[in-house]
Amino acid sequence: MSTSAIADTDQKTIDILKAIIMDTVRSANSGHTGGPLSSLDFTYVLFKDFLSFDPDDPNWFNRDRFVMSIGHESALLYSMLTLVGWLDVDDLKKFRRLGSLTPGHPERGLTPGVEATTGPLGQGVGNAVGMAASESILNKLFGNDIVNHYTYVLHGDGDIQEPVAQGAIALAGHWKLHKLIAYYDSNDAQISGKVSRSDSTDYALMYKSHGWSVIEVDGHNKDEIRSAIRKAQMEIEKPTVIIGHTKMANGCATMEGDHNTHGAPLPPDEIANTKKKLGLDPNSFFNLPDEIIDEFQSSYDFARSEVQAWNNSLLIRFQDETFKEKWDLAMSGDIPSSVEFPAYESGETIATRKVWGAVIEAMAPCMPTLVGGSADLEPSNVTSGFAEMVKDFGPNMRSGRNFAYGVREFPMGAINNGIAQHGGMKVFGATFFVFSDYERPALRLRALQNLDAVSEYTHDSIYVGEDGPTHQPVEHLMACRSIPNLLVLRPADANEASHAIKMSFSLRRPSIVLLSRQGLPVLDRKEYTSSSQVEKGGYIISDVDCPDIIIYSSGSEIHLALDVKKALDKFKVRVVNMFSWELFDEQNTEYKNTIFEPDFKGLRVSIEAGITMGWERFTGLEGLNIGINSFGESAPGKDVANHFGLNCESVIEKILEKLI
Predict the structure, then answer these.
(1) What is the DSSP code (8-state) at residue 235?
(2) How far apart are CA 589 and CA 569, in angstroms?
(3) CA pseudo-torsion sign 625, 588, 497, 432
(4) Which helix (H) or strand (E) holds 415?
């Protein structure tokens, strides 16, 4: 086919896709039209001429990754995936309908070809940075013939205004992720009007200042787009951003450039007139001719041959047992049996955060795909030893496995999500628990996607002490427990912490591990139930027949509960360790009844150094909930605890008052 014929076919396909996008959004009576039409030329060229994938397997490991951070342009992505063959026109007709493969924003794990759940703007940029970092580390580990792909991310004005994107962009430039290629659809339109109403940033200069290569193009000129992608692929030192200067609702009959097309279907008359302008039948809807699909898929035989060649290379490499062992470990996500998890003797006093360092340092030599980092708190999070062992990841250390994130909690969370989305590595992030507020949007999307990523949060209560209320988490524990599908683990001593950390890396689900700054006594497990019982989420740590009082607690407050039991020697007191509410909820009814005892007539008490809201599920309306329903104070940890009545004497006084 001649160059002019190819150009004509490309333009015809793009025009048909414009009609399909308009029909898709109109049929749902909600969604975004203007943005997809703005970004269409780039996305089509990328998918048609550059994107490497297996037509028969959306999850082929060495595929190029494409992240649509600008998630409200989902109608564009779904149209492209229909051309690819992973969706069909009937799926487009169900856009934004319950149970469809075409929800309002892309959802990973639901729709074939969707690499990341995007919707809240900016996070997809961080996801793409994580994917590119993954490719770089795995390329160094397994070789250029096995892991060698690009990561592309499409983002817009809304993405780039979110600080999470800018933090991720800074790290990508610092790490010199040269196989990361971003396309910035700059159309000067947002839902509320022109971008210039709220922003005058020179984004080309911003990207350059962060160490990126910058290419500016007419975002509707396909030749310029192709040339820019080729240049980006040839860049070997820096990530590249292609800034496409585009028009919102490009090609529309009368509404081209109108910001009102951003978040709404086009009026039927505008759709009809636009189809006429494009030379299409205004009375034809969802028309995707077979010849258009056939032309788009004409390179599939070559793509399949590339996949087969990769499969053959992998089989050859499997002849090396060391390689195969590493590859199987990376793909399975299992923890090798050779890892020796630390165990501690009763009588010691150990801050549970110190156990984190001991565990990851034990895992690191046995798991070449264990990666992670701290948001500038390595000594406090006890990740310094890991960092020294595996070295910082960067342009001069592609095999480095520690990420020096700096003070960037939210970008850290989004990037770690991208590492989990990419696959092949175990990833963790670390900071103070109070700063989970900064990372929370990434935690939420992690839970939504069921990503295998772990967050270590230290300084988990008011026992932080002198740093005061800004650094003392009070509401955070309940806030994290409220996120669906997020596993929250709060161990009471060093041995429980060792179990908790092992579980967080073994269960292949989004997990957070909450660890103490202060030293906690290692419990004598001859006197108290085995720490392995944490696997049930809640367990009776100290029992008694026919109790008068049941105390529910978690973490460091377990020790207070046990002290209270000893002091209340005239009462029969059972102490229950609610290590993980989520795991407890997953136990069978019979087991849960042994913990809750539905017919119990005595006093139920909860003790936790945080807000009491939520404990009613265990203590009931008549129970006693002891905690902190205000912000903290600045003083030594014990003084703060005494101020809030978190000591044996105060708790006993409250219990006795309740019993009278």
Answers:
(1) -
(2) 31
(3) negative
(4) helix 409-422
Residue 164's SS3 state is: helix
So what's the pLDDT on residue 1? 60
Q: 302: closest CA among 94, 64, 49?
A: 49
Active site members: 409
The DSSP annotation for 130-152 comes to: HHHHHHHHHHHHH-TTTS---EE
Here the tokens at position 595 are 């913990």
Q: 154 — phi, psi (to 5°)?
A: -100, 120
Looking at residue 367, its pLDDT comes to: 96
Residues 583, 416: Cα–Cα separation, whole Å: 23
- For the chain, give every residue range classified as CATH 3.40.50.920: 531-659
Q: Helix, strand, or coil here: 367?
A: coil
Dig out the tokens for 160 from the structure. 């780039």
The residues near 379 (Cβ < 8 Å, ≥ 6 apart) are none
- DSSP bridge pairs for 458: 432
- Per-residue pLDDT at 177: 98
- Quickly state the pLDDT bin for 4 (edges 50, 70, 90): low
Mean pLDDT in residue range 620-633: 96
Lowest-pLDDT range of 101-110, 582-591, 595-604:
595-604
Tokens of 550: 């049941």
Half-sphere exposure of 379 (CA within 13 A, CB side): 0
Q: Which two tokens stand for residue 207?
A: 């990207």
Question: What tokens appear for 337 in the block?
Answer: 């049996």
Q: What is the pLDDT of residues 51-84, one digit of tens each?
A: 999 999 999 999 999 999 999 999 999 999 999 9
Query: What is the rounded CA–CA span in Å between residue 480 and residue 356?
Result: 20
Q: Which segments of the chain belong to CATH 3.40.50.970?
A: 3-302, 349-521
Q: Enumerate residues 6+ apart whose C-beta is below 8 A from 105.
A: 71, 72, 74, 117, 118, 119
pLDDT band for position 176 (cuts 50, 70, 90): very high
- The length of the chain is 660
Q: What is the per-residue pLDDT across 179-222, written as a single tens digit (0 to 9) for each?
A: 999 999 999 888 888 888 999 999 999 999 999 999 999 999 99
DSSP designation for 335: P
Q: Which among 456, 227, 448, 493 is positioned nearest to 345, based on CA atoms? A: 493
Distance CA 354, CA 379 (A): 10
DSSP reduced 3-state for 514: strand
- Separation between Cα atoms, residue 517 and residue 467, nearest integer Å: 12
Phi, psi of 507 (to 5 degrees): -80, -10
Angle between helices 123-142 and 321-332 (to 10 degrees): 160
For domain 349-521, is the CATH number 3.40.50.970? yes
Which ranges in 50-108 belong to alpha helices (H)?
74-84, 89-93
For residue 88, the model assigns a pLDDT of 96
531-659: which CATH number, 3.40.50.920, 2.40.50.100, 1.20.1440.130, 3.40.50.2300? 3.40.50.920
E strand residue ranges, 554-607: 573-577, 603-607
Query: What was the pLDDT predicted at 189?
Result: 83
Fold of 3-302: Rossmann fold (3.40.50)
